[in-house]
Design goal:
single chain, mainly alpha
Length: about 110
């Protein structure tokens, strides 16, 4: 009996690390945390003033969402070429050896 891809309990299509969402989420989280901590400390304005956590949280959200959008856009744009593109006969498959031109007859 052969296992089909649609059967429950069978994980036949393993995804590699490029296709998972864990890596982009973790990277965006790290960028957001860095942006939040830096902006919290930078917006305080000295050691006598209290920490500006509101600005830090705002910058965390902006950096997290912005980096997640950019990463997802780059992931969607990256697409592997199919193997059959290099097969078969094309018009000019090798540019170093262009096809010979036929003689044109005038009408």
């Amino acid at each position: 009996m052969s296992t089909q891809a649609g059967e429950p309990g069978q994980n036949n299509n393993k995804r590699n690390w490029k296709q998972t969402v864990k890596v982009p989420l973790l990277f965006s989280l790290i960028l957001g945390l860095i942006a939040g901590v830096v902006s919290t400390i930078a917006s305080t304005g000295g050691s006598e003033n209290p920490l500006r956590v509101d600005i830090g949280l705002t910058m965390f959200g902006i950096a997290f969402v912005g980096s997640l959008l950019l990463i997802s856009l780059m992931i969607m744009a990256a697409k592997e070429n199919p193997e059959d593109l290099g097969q078969g006969s094309g018009v000019n498959r090798v540019s170093a050896r262009p096809p010979k031109q036929r003689k044109q007859t005038g009408h």
